[in-house]
Each structure stands twice: as C-alpha cells, then as structure tokens.
Amino acid sequence: MALLEVENLEVYYGVINALKGISFKVNEGEIVTLIGANGAGKTTTMQSVVGLLSSKSGNITFDGHDISKLPCDKIVKLGMTQVPEGRHIFQELTVYENLLLGGFLLKDQKIIKEDINMIYERFPRLYERKNQIGGTLSGGEQQMLAIGRALMSKPKLLMLDEPSMGLSPLLVDEVFDIIKTINNEGTTILLVEQNAGKSLAISDRAYVLENGRITLSGTGKELMSSEEVKKAYLGG
Amino acid sequence: MEIITTIINGLSIGGIYAMIALGYTMVYGIAKMLNFAHGDIIMVGGYTIYVTMNLTGHPLIAIAVAVVFCVILGVTIEKVAYKPLRGASPLAVLITAIGVSYLLQSLAQIVFGSAPKMVRIADMGSLKIGSLKIQVYTLVTLVCTIIVMICLTLFVKLTKTGRAMLATSEDKAATQLMGISVNRIITITFAIGSALAALAGLFYLLKAPSISNTFGSMPGIKAFTAAVIGGIGSIPGAMLGGFLLGIVECISYKIPIIAPYTDAIEFLILIVILLVKPTGILGKRRREKV
Q1: Within the 51-90 window of chain A, which residues sit less than 8 Å (CB to CB) from chain B?
Q2: In a designed cystine with B241, which of A156, B135, B220, B229 is the match (CB 3.0 to 4.6 A)?
Q3: Least CB–CB distance from B166: residue in A72, A81, A93
Q4: Averaged pLDDT, A106-123
Q5: Contact, A25 vs A4, CB < 8 A?
Q6: In the beta sheet, which residues pair with residue A62?
Q7: Interface check A91 vs B, CB under 8 A
Q8: CB contact burial A100-133 (16+ within 10 A = b; e otherwise)
C-alpha cells in the first residue's frame, strides 16, 4: 500500500513554474529516492509534501489522509517528518535540547528519556556533546543530530533532503549506512540526493526529476544501469 | 547615602522598563515584528485597574482583571491585525502596529475623556533605614519585577513551550518540522507580553498615580530603547537594557545641570550603542542561511 502518494503536484514561485505536475508514490517500508540536478525541484517537492510550502496544487495523500491543504505541524503529527536541506538544527540550543524538541509531540517523559538514550546509543558522538550548543558541532555531527532529532518523533515516513551534502566521503558512507539501518528497523524513507550513485544503491525505487518534471522512474538497480542516468548523474 | 536611594529608584524604574522591553523583544524575536501598540497595552492595563479599583476597591482583584483583560486584548490584536499580514512586507506590519496604537489611544480618549484620572491603589509610605529613606513602592516594584523575570527565564529555559519559543525565534521552518504550531507559539508570546505590560501599568501607577490616554507612550518608547540597547530579540538583553536605562535616568535626575535633558541622554545612549555595536549589547548577528 502506498504510504505517500503525490498526484499532479504543481508549484509556482511567482511566475516561475517550479514543479510542473509531478506524481510519485512511496510504499510502506521502501526507500525511495528523487535524484536530479540543482534547481530540478527536489527541495520544492520535499517542502510541498511536508507542508512548508502552501502555494501548491495537486493531491498529496499520506497514510490515508489528504494532506495537501494541511499546515506543516499538522502533517508532522500524522507521522511524517523531514531532515531539511542544510540540517537546520537549533544552533543556540544544546544537543539535548534539540533532541527534546524533536520529541515535542510525545507526552510521556519516561518515553522521551528512553528515546533520547536510544539516539545517544545510535550516535555516541551526540552523547559526548549533549550539553554543547548546536552551532559548535561539526557538519557531520550536525547531520547526526538532525537525523536523531527527526527520529525522536517516531515518524512512519522520514524524508531526508540532501543528507550527504558537505560531508567528507567517509561520513557520506556512514550517513547512507544509517539511512539503511533506519529503514531496516521499519521506517519508510524518502530521500533527495545529488549523490545519485550512493542513493540509488540503497534505494528500492527512484525517480529522476528534471526541470520540474519526472522524466524517469524505476527500481534503484534499473536506474543505475540506465544509460541516461549514467551519463547525467553517475559521471559516465 | 543618597546614591544608594538613587540606585534603588533606578533599579525599580529599570525593572518596569525591563518588563515592557521583554514584551517588545519576545514578540520581535518570535514574530519578527515591532509591536508599536505594546506601550498602549500598558495604558489599557492602567485604565482597567482604574475601573476595577473604583468598582471593587480591591488592588489584587484590579491587578488580576487588568492582566486577564490585557492578555485577551493582546491576543485579539495579534489575531485580527497582525496574523492576516503574516508574510507581508515588514513595513505593512509596522504601519498596522502604529495604527493599532492610535486606535487604542483614541478609544481610551472616547471612553475616559482626555483629562487625567487619579488612581489610588495603595499608599505604602516610606521606609527609614538609618539615614536612608526609601519609598516602599520602589522596593515592592523592584522585588516583583525581579521575581517575574526569574519566572520568565525559568519558563523559557525549562518548559516545553519555552523551548518551542526559543526554537521559533531561531528557525521557524525547523520548528514546524518538530510538529510545533508556530501560530500557537506567537499567540502565547503575545499573551505573555501583554500580561507583563499590564503589570508594568500597575507599577507605573504606584509611582505616578495619574493616567491619561498617552500613559503608555513614554514608558513604551523608553522600554523599546532598552530592548534595542540590550539587543532586540534577546531576553537577558531586554532585562539588562531596562535596568541600565532606569539607573541612568535616576542618576541623571539627581544632577541639576543635566536633569532637564534626561530623556535626551537616554536616547543618546541608544545612538552611541548602535554606533559601537549595532546588534545591541547582548544581541547576536544571525547568520542568514539559504
């Protein structure tokens, strides 16, 4: 069953038609990737789905709910969240406070404590730096924190926008490993990446976004062996 | 010994400025707007105290009614006047705020007339410690404002809602991704700011028990100056700026040559600080990210 279904999503920035009616779906348990060049509309798609962009048309259904008109906080309550491009951690709050905010929707203090400890186990670096303010973390640590913070809300669907951006090759591998692990534990993933090779390798399915349109779709393997994708996104 | 009295007076008036400044700075930090009608909430609080004192004669009831009424008014103004302008140009919001300010002043003039009204809340007398003579209301004001500020600081630091307020002031998009309704946080901020303004109205009336429709203008401007001096958007900055301005004001009043220029001196401090540190004493330059 499709957990997320996007139909004919269209977005205008003023007169610029950023998304020209795209449709895609994410089934429960999958890792789905949108790949595409800069300006193809990947981040616009992500922000539209999660409700950060409201001037859009088309249908977005999540877990049986029509979310196309809902504001972001209501959508997050339904069980979807996003690690935004550029991580957007709270720079002036501590690692611990960032995680607490991630668990804002949880009511039970005990569960929040347990969840934070689980995040610390997954990312020991965050435990070491729990009282440090977010702005002083390295890029990799900030990415771990952004992912940990998003996991605190126990989303059914976790969306990650360019999680490998600006990280060293070693950390990029680590981030993709983490995404794979999170998926194995039962969270559905929608990923946006410029690093097509690494993301296709872990994806069940993928879509290629070009100038606001989906031009190609298939399983991760299919797209990896597609001549077009090889030429445009995998460096020949 | 005179200097000690002056400093206590300065801290007391500074405490009032700080409470008003907190309203400006929190609203600016979270809604990114300058709420120029904030000073007039003080005036509405003052008139509410005047009316309830006449009706009930009981100061505590008057204060409670004033706080509740100002909270409802502040939240209503936000919903009716500012919320529809979310995303509009800052200038449109600013002009709307000035409009709301005039609206409140004019309404007060229609209802209460333009002649000042006397408001006797409580005569607390004065206290003598050795050669030190202190008005009791200054001590009451100082203690109360400090308690309120400690509570507010703890609220922001330790509660979920407080953390959500800090998060909103830093990054609205990320805050929404935590499932937090930014509109709700803005409403709470206006409620807190208005409650503080009502209390400031009370303390001002203890000091000078006369109220007219421009009652809130000067404290409003002074407190706004204090908020900018301390660094607008910063909660400790508003407190620091308020106390600083209060002390400068009281010291300046005590020196005959410069006493008539006290207001000018306070605004001069603002100009100097903006020249030396444009973000204010505790203000931080936000890195704008794309």
Answers
A1: 51-52, 71-74, 76-77, 81-82, 84, 86, 88-90
A2: B229
A3: A93
A4: 95
A5: yes
A6: A4, A65
A7: yes
A8: bbbbbbbeeeeebeebbeebbebbeebeebbeeb
* Identity of the amino acid at B162: G
- Averaged over A195-213, what is the pLDDT? 94
- Percent of chain A exceeding pLDDT 90 equals 87
Chain-chain contact of B173 with A93 (C-beta, under 8 angstroms): no
Taking Cα atoms as reference points, which of A195, A189, A194 lies closest to residue A80? Answer: A189
Bridge partner list, A81? A158
B166, B170, B177: residue with CB nearest A76: B177
What is the number of other CB atoms lying within 10 angstroms of the CB of residue B269?
17
Contact criterion met (CB below 8 Å) for B14 and B243: yes
Write the single-letter amino acid at A233.
Y
B129 three-class SS: strand
Nearest Cα residue in chain B from A88: B174
Q: What is the dihedral of CA A34, A36, A38, A40, to 10 degrees?
A: -80
Torsion of CA B165, B171, B173, B179, to 10 degrees: -30
Domain map of chain B by residue range? 2-215
Instruction: Quick: pLDDT tens for A139-174.
Output: 999 999 999 999 999 999 999 999 999 899 999 999
Structure tokens at B99: 């409009």
Which ipTM was obtained for this model? 0.94
**A205-210 vs A31-36, strand pairing mode:** parallel
Residue A236: band (very low, low, confident or very high) from pLDDT cuts 50, 70, 90 = low
C-alpha of B245 from chain center: 13
β-strands A205-210, A2-13 pairing: unpaired
Confidence band of B128 (pLDDT split at 50, 70, 90): confident
Dihedral of alpha carbons A137, A189, A109, B168, sign: positive
